[in-house]
Amino acid sequence: MSNMNLPETMIEVVDLHKRFKDLHVLKGISTVVKHSEVVAVMGPSGSGKSTFLRCLNRLEEPTSGRIYIEGVDIMAPYIDINRVRTEIGMVFQSFNLFPHLTAIENIKLAPMNVRKISNKEATERGMALLEKVGLAEKATAYPEQLSGGQQQRVAIARALAMQPQIMFFDEPTSALDPEMIGEVLDVMRNMAKEGMTMMVVSHEMGFIREAADRILFLADGLIVEDGTPDQIFNHSKHKRTIEFLGKIL
Amino acid sequence: MAMSLALLIAYALFLLPDKESAIPVWFYSSISFFIVLILAYSGSILADREKPEALKMGVAFMLIAVLGWLFHRYSGAQWHRLADFFFNWEKLEGNWWILWEGLGVTLFLAFISGIGSVVVGLLIAVLRTLNSPTMNFFLKVYVDVFRSIPMIVVMVIFFFAMPFMGISLGSIVSTVLALSLGYGAYASECFRAGIESVHSGQLEAARSLGLSRWKTIYKIILPQAIPVVIPPLTGTLVAMLKDTAVASVVAAPELLKRARELYTSETNPTPLVAAALIYLAVLIPLVRAVNMLENRMQKKRNE
Amino acid sequence: MADPKNSETATGLSDLKDKIGHIPIIRRNSFVYGFLTVLILYGVFLLPSRGSSGTVDLGRIALFGVLLLIWAMVVFTDELKSEKMKTTMVFSLFIIAGWLYYRYSTARWGEMGFLFFNVEMIQKAWPTLMEGFWTTLLLAVGAAIMSTIVGLLLAVFRSFNNAVLNFFIIAYVDFFRAMPIIVLMMLIYYALPFMGISLSAIMSGILALGLNSSAYVSEIFRAGFLSVKKGQIEAANALGLTPIQTMRLVILPQAFRVVIPPLVGNYVASAKDTALASSISIIELLKAGLSQKSLLANPSPLIFVTALYLAMFLPLTRFAGYLEKKMKASQRQVRL
After folding, report:
1. Handedness of CA C115, C121, C123, C128 (dihedral sign)
2. Which of A64, B155, C74, C336 is most buried as measured by Cβ atoms within 10 A of its Cβ?
3. Under a CB-based contact definition with an 8 Å cutoff, are residues A184 and A149 in contact?
4. Does C1 contact A at CB distance below 8 Å?
5. Looking at the domain assignment, is residue B123 inside a domain?
6. What string of pLDDT tens digits covers the 249 residues of chain A?
């Protein structure tokens, strides 16, 4: 909300709360994400990072609060949430590729069934995306035949196939072997350069430092710090942040 | 080893009772003790890794032979009557068509009830994915009730008690309804296990792509659940085929019922034996197939 | 509902901006209540009168049922309808279905209590029913004991991996798993006497149930033995344990955990199958209920027997299911 000179607001969150029965996970989160901004969400485990992200496309139903995507109130009753989700690609920690479909079929599924485009067009688009993530030759491979890094790149291509305006990454590299993290981060870095609006839950310091415009630091369901990577990593005043960074650096 | 064998032979020669012993306690206990001894003896040899394979083969044949001999000697069976009363195919001459007709009815019942129970089971399982507590409560009650009451009781209620409520169903309809509703409950558990075996991440991934709930069930969950469902579902359906024989109690003219009628009119159990053989011929391959499916499943899971 | 026109460009959610607050008709509460009103009006004015049975009338009743189901599906498939509304709807569905049945069935409603829940009749039938209950128990326990002994022996001898014995054991298991129990009972009770083997009805019942169950029990024990990895036995040998010690200290405790849940499930299934013994004139619970029903010309004993089965087996079925679930959960933990 500070830089009003930047053009368009992509996501606006107002006082978001989420409770699981007795557990108060999100205790009133408000923030704004602008067009083409790359926002890293960090914080100790249990701080509600993943829940926050999953509330934003209502994979988890928020308990209260308002969420605006491109100015559309997605908490409005009877909003077509499936339509909203087509604009938000999501990449998961455990890839979640559909094991009964090949890589290209994974990518084609949503465009064909939700966007209703033809098989031919979906195949062309899917192959172009596979090319982009460097896996064109693996199009007909099943997920179990791919390495973790390859699976995650296919998952990214699958999300991109819907031509979303926003991409969410929920710890995209935590389930990967170290030597595979690079290939996934490369793909993400390229997306950031191309101007994709991204929210990334991750602790990959190198990637964040280089690609993120902003860091949201969450602890106990609240944003305790919000600033550029330089501010957070080098000049943080907040005790929780310093403590946490000390642990992971 | 040789020593114990000698003792066993001595036991068999001197201590085993006569065919018609006067003292039942002595009769049964001495035979039982002999069986225990012979099992222990052969077991100890078969379990020993040092013993040669040829000896083990010998022991195995001996064990079978001794058990057969004991049965032959003490069951009181009059073996010469076997051919006359169990395999007297003359009695069935001209009557085979009755059994085939009965088999036809059995297969018909199984087929219709099979479709019925799969439909009921799938419906319940899909409705349960809607996650409505009220709905789930009633579905759970349904499944529990039908899994708790013996199938024969369900059939009997449909056939004998429903008419008092103004619903007369007839034996075929009672059977099909009872089997469909009852095995539908079992089938729903198979489907549910299959659906639950699909990782929740799959659901989230599909929904995050904008797929609707029904599309997710149809495109993502069912294709992954079906291979998991097939082995237990086949098992359930084979069990249902076996249970069609129970329909004879409510006078459905299936194989067992027809065989019993023949048995009564011919005063000869050959029709019953023939019916049993027909059941075996149909069911043994199916039971084996189910076994194979389950083993393959198990292996896949252990990989 | 993706807009196909929008698919090519898919420029954001601009189309949704116009739609905010626009609720699809079938998702509106007014639709649900309006539909309900229509249903009620239909029910009051268009449903045929009682006792009519023409095709048109039956069609009208059927149409009413279909409309009712459509209405229910509309409410139930809506993620945003409150649970309270769905609950109310389920109960109103039950009430309407009951009312329809009440109105159109030819049952004599005044006699329902007399027919189905007649305490006096149940009291008259009580001694027989109790006898039947004990017989059922005897059958169940007898079959359980027999099947455990025979099944365990079969599994042990199967584990010796002797080709000759395995042939006979597999034949035995396949035979009794494929043979419907009721057929087996009739063979033993009606056919064997012709060969000179006359068993009492109870013995025939126990024998048939036990033989059938023993085939399953042997498979359960075998799976239990197989679940103990070969390395365990080798490790025990390496420690210098005798075969009996290995069995007692290493194999059995591990196999036990795998065996118990399906074993309990099998005993429960076998206990349920005791009802089949009614077909060979054993006066167990079901037969007692049936005979008293005929004797008193009143189905109350039968209803009572059904309730009794439910009361006995509902907890047992749930318990068996609970054990199995627990085992599966622990297996999953081991694999992680």
Report:
1. negative
2. B155
3. yes
4. yes
5. yes
6. 444 444 578 899 999 999 988 889 999 999 999 988 999 999 888 888 999 999 998 888 899 999 998 888 888 877 788 888 989 999 999 999 999 999 999 999 999 998 889 999 999 999 999 999 999 999 999 999 999 999 999 999 999 999 998 999 999 998 888 888 999 999 999 999 999 999 999 988 889 998 999 999 998 889 999 999 988 888 888 888 888 888 876
Q: Are A199 and A177 in contact (CB under 8 A)?
A: no
The last residue of a domain, from among B77, B109, B133: B77
Helix C201-227 with C252-273: angle, nearest 10 deg: 150
Which residues in chain C are closer than 8 Å to A58, comparing Cβ atoms? none
Closest in A70, A79, A80 to C12, CB measured: A70
Query: C20 CA to chain A: closest CA distance, Å?
Result: 7
Whether residue B212 lies within 8 A of chain A, CB to CB, comes out as yes
Position A187: which residue type?
Answer: V
CB–CB of A97 and B205 under 8 A?
yes
Do B73 and B206 lie in one domain? The reply is no
C187 and C162 fall within a common domain: yes
pTM of the model: 0.83
**How far is it, in rounded angstroms, from Cα C222 to Cα C240?**
25
d(CA B238, CA C73): 33
Half-sphere exposure (Cβ direction) of A107: Cα atoms closer than 13 Å = 33
The residue segments making up the domain with residue B298 are 89-302
Q: Does B166 share its domain with B297?
A: yes
